[in-house]
């Protein structure tokens, strides 16, 4: 890559699987020389947002465990509009992924009890937990303005990304 910004150029002809494989390669390359979690998750938010640019994704980013208040997640690096700062673990889609350590694939946010609506435009969502040394670190969160915005393909690659993040970041 000639410039860092080039990493955020995704070929619009790529299918979702190929785009996500390319995203994981880019994240891995960027994280090779950097282990600071803020820097890595900030660039990862950009990669995610641009990767899903044509798919109606309106928010892509992270909530991390609040070290001052470990029953809560706190807003981390993201791309998109202003969002809720703090989410109790167990609440909403993010808090459920955090408390169960299981990906939450939500085809219609209105059907998810306790969904926290940071943006009324959001119709579907996927949240993937990040675990390091058997400890919850945070979650990846993607929102979409379309129903059924995400599938098992997204789940598979975003779970792979969560493992990569745990392997490459110092929290
Ligand atoms: N909808 C999430 C809240 C975070 S925003 O989507 C950015 C939830 O229910 O946890």
TrEMBL record:
One of its GO terms (molecular function) is L-methionine-(R)-S-oxide reductase activity. Pfam families: GAF_2. Coiled coil: none annotated. InterPro entries: GAF, GAF-like_dom_sf, Phosphatase_reg/MetRdx. It comes from the Eukaryota. Residues 61-166 form the GAF domain. GO terms for cellular component: cytosol. Belongs to the free Met sulfoxide reductase family. This is L-methionine (R)-S-oxide reductase.
């Amino acid at each position: 890559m000639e410039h860092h910004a080039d990493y955020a150029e995704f070929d619009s002809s790529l299918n979702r699987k190929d785009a996500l494989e390319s995203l994981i390669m880019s994240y891995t390359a960027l994280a090779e020389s950097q282990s600071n979690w803020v820097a890595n998750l900030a660039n990862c938010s950009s990669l995610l947002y641009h990767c899903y640019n044509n798919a109606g994704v309106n928010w892509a980013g992270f909530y991390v465990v609040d070290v001052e208040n470990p029953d809560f997640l706190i807003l981390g690096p993201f791309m998109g509009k202003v969002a809720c700062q703090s989410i109790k673990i167990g609440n909403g889609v993010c808090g459920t992924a955090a408390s169960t350590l299981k990906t939450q694939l939500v085809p219609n946010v209105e059907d998810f009890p306790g969904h926290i609506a940071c943006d009324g435009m959001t119709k579907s969502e996927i949240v993937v937990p990040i675990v390091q040394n058997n400890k919850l670190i945070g979650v990846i969160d993607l929102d979409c303005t379309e129903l059924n915005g995400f599938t098992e393909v997204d789940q598979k690659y975003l779970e792979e990304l969560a493992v990569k993040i745990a392997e490459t970041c110092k929290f």
